[in-house]
Specification:
By secondary structure, the chain is mainly α. The chain has 9 helices and no strands.
Length: 208
């Protein structure tokens, strides 16, 4: 019984951190840029210099994710798509894995009480704002494309401040819990092999 209660509490805490991006009007130029950013449908690939480097990364991440995604094909398809969409948006794939861990616990069909959907817990209003209503936010690539595009938008808006950008992504701007948990997941669970100065979180962990 104690173990069951622990699992329920863990599930509750995971849902409590699910996304709730706030709707904000966008200028026509920003809206057009974001719409263009989600439109490309090139085949995802691992952007490494060599096949060996790509395979090494995929094997390392696959091992970390095996417990959550037991099927190897599903797991590798997910990881290749994460890497592609993150790199395409100018994000560290390890950061995106940290966001997904906190937002949805790697559950494809996660649905928050606010209506946020999928791996990266994207709010449906984004479909109308920068996409089309026919798109399915539970679809792997669609969800990751939107999530990475939105996070990149918030990072640009906050001039590279990860604390504030992650707060906006989660709808909890100014509250320290969510950004700190994501950054800890990023640096502790998904670090590979080291962060470069180009992607080190501005200010590190925060208690702001």
């Amino acid at each position: 019984m104690r173990g069951l209660i622990g699992l329920l509490l863990a599930a509750f805490s995971q849902l409590a951190l699910a996304g709730n991006q706030a709707y904000e009007p966008l200028s026509a130029s920003v809206q057009a840029a974001l719409h263009a950013a989600i439109s490309d449908q090139a085949t995802p690939f691992l952007a490494f210099d060599t096949v060996d480097e790509a395979r090494t990364w995929l094997d390392a991440m696959s091992k970390k994710l095996e417990r959550r995604m037991p099927d190897r094909h599903t797991r590798e398809e997910f990881l290749v798509t994460v890497h592609y969409e993150a790199k395409r948006a100018g994000l560290d794939p390890q950061l995106v894995l940290g966001v997904i861990q906190v937002e949805s616990g790697f559950r494809k069909h996660a649905l928050s009480s606010a209506g946020a959907r999928g791996f990266m817990q994207v709010m449906p209003f984004w479909l109308k704002l920068i996409g089309t209503k026919e798109q399915n936010l539970f679809h792997l690539r669609t969800n990751l494309r939107y999530g990475c595009t939105i996070l990149r938008h918030y990072l640009d808006r906050e001039h590279g401040d990860y604390f504030r950008a992650l707060g906006r992504y989660n709808g909890s701007l100014g509250q320290p819990e969510y950004p700190n948990i994501v950054v800890r997941a990023w640096l502790s669970n998904w670090k590979y092999p080291v962060l470069t100065s180009a992607v080190t979180p501005t200010g590190g962990l925060s208690s702001r």
